[in-house]
């Protein structure tokens, strides 16, 4: 059961994407619209006139799709923002407007257009970095919008420059440094330790020295260590870092603390990036539906009252009758085909409760079978990233059912 838990934990925080930066279109801008003149690695644009790139042939069905979309769009989810350079021959201020748009086929589901504005002042090449929180899309809709980007539009307006240049339009995981960890929350017994694997990447074209700093508010009980804490990164290089958190034996069940790790590139504190981890003292299981004592109280009622015996018999009859469905195979021709019907959540609850009250491993086996199908790294949720296909609300209901069922059978020997 430990393997199931680890896979489900990784799924909860998202799937890591390969690559620290991803170009938008070709480096020579030959596939962009509105370009005045395209060069080898840069393009000339007219002040105040928008230039744009439109995605096509993205094959967005499988794998790594966060949810279904109708349009043919790119996935920017997991990146931190957009970066590019502009060239001002005559030093001046330049107004930069950037908009990323959803496919019209997805306007009912997504924010149609998300815009950010910035003012850049200077001469020669100037770097622009726009993190996603500068765009006018609600935080609650931001993740969805980034998963289906159809078009990027950039406008640069300068009163002193009729023509400008642009280069290196990319989505990036960080302005200078990127921090990623597949699992950012773990539990351990009081007196124990947990370890996280942190990946630190250099998103620039220059070698950088990186120092990791552990932020402390004060009165923290858990002891945090990172190894290595200081290292050098070549352009595009990624360093694996071990984050260890020791939990004092005196902490009570459920005690939780946040660990904030800050990466400072080349001593530039203003360019630092942070990542949060959440570590807690393990609570004895089961604990979601009932605690062990509360389950024992239900067993006592079954032994004492006829109505309770009848209810348990009904649960057992239903659990015995239920046949665990097989996950539907991944089929690119039918993108809305899901793994299971949403009703599996109810059956998992019944089988889990029947196991807790009787100890019959046959009931636990059914729950474990379905959990392993869902967490299968090749054919389950890590690939399809949907279970029912009935929208986020029903997906949430199913995940609640998965969590309750896992909690009820996690002490099974299977």
| Tally of contiguous helical segments | 8
Largest sheet properties: 8 strands, antiparallel
The whole-angstrom Rg is 26 Å
Distance between the termini: 7 Å
Secondary-structure-based class equals alpha+beta
Beta-strand percentage? 25-35%
Q: What's the helix-strand series?
A: HEEEEEEHEEEEEEEEEEEHHHHHH
Structural overview:
This protein is α+β, with helices and mostly antiparallel strands and 414 residues long. It contains eight helices and 17 strands. The protein has helices at residues 2-13, 139-146, 292-304, 306-321, 344-358, 361-374, 381-384, 392-409, and strands at residues 21-23, 37-38, 43-46, 51-54, 81-101, 113-131, 151-157, 163-172, 177-180, 185-188, 193-202, 208-215, 223-227, 230-233, 238-246, 256-265, 273-281. The strands form three sheets. Strands 1, 2, 3, 4, 5, 6, 7 and 8 form an eight-stranded antiparallel sheet that branches. Strands 10-17-16-12-14 form a five-stranded mixed sheet, with no helix packed on it. It has a four-stranded antiparallel sheet with strand order 9-11-15-13, with no helix packed on it. The longest helix is centred in the last third of the chain and has 18 residues, at 392-409. It is globular and about 90 Å long. Mean pLDDT is 89; it is low at 5-18 and 61-66.
């Amino acid at each position: 059961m430990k393997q199931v838990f680890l896979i489900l934990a990784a799924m909860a925080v998202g799937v890591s994407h390969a690559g620290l930066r991803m170009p938008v279109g070709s480096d020579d801008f030959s596939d962009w619209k509105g370009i005045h003149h395209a060069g080898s690695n840069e393009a000339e644009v007219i002040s105040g006139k928008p230039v744009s790139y439109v995605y096509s042939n993205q094959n967005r069905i499988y794998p790594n799709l966060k949810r279904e979309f109708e349009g043919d769009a790119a996935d920017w989810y997991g990146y931190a923002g957009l970066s590019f350079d502009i060239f001002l021959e005559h030093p001046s201020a330049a107004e930069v407007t950037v908009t990323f748009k959803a496919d019209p086929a997805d306007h009912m589901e997504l924010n149609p257009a998300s815009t950010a504005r910035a003012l850049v002042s200077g001469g020669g090449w100037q770097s622009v970095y726009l993190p996603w929180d500068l765009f006018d899309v609600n935080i609650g809709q931001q993740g969805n919008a980034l998963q289906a980007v159809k078009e990027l539009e950039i406008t640069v307006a300068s009163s002193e420059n009729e023509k400008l240049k642009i280069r290196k339009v990319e989505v990036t995981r960080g302005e200078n440094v990127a921090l990623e960890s597949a699992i950012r929350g773990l539990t351990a017994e009081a007196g124990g330790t947990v370890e996280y694997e942190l990946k630190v990447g250099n998103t620039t074209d220059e070698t950088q020295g990186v120092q990791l700093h552990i932020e402390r508010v004060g009165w923290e009980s858990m002891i945090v260590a990172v190894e290595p804490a200081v290292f050098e990164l070549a352009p595009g290089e990624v360093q694996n870092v071990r984050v260890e958190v020791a939990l004092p034996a005196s902490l009570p069940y459920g005690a939780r603390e946040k660990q904030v790790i800050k990466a400072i590139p080349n001593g530039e504190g203003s360019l630092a990036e942070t990542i949060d981890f959440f570590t807690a003292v393990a609570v004895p299981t089961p604990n979601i539906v009932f605690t062990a004592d509360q389950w024992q109280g239900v067993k006592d009622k079954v032994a004492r009252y006829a109505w309770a015996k009848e209810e348990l018999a009904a649960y057992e009859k239903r659990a015995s009758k239920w046949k665990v469905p097989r996950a539907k195979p991944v089929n690119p021709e039918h993108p809305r085909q899901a793994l299971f019907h949403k009703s599996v959540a109810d059956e998992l609850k019944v089988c889990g409760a029947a196991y807790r009250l009787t100890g019959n491993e046959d009931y636990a086996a059914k729950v474990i079978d379905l959990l392993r199908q869902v967490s299968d790294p090749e054919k389950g949720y890590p690939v399809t990233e949907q279970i029912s296909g009935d929208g986020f609300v029903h997906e949430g209901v199913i995940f609640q059912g998965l969590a309750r069922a896992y909690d009820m059978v996690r002490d099974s020997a299977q």
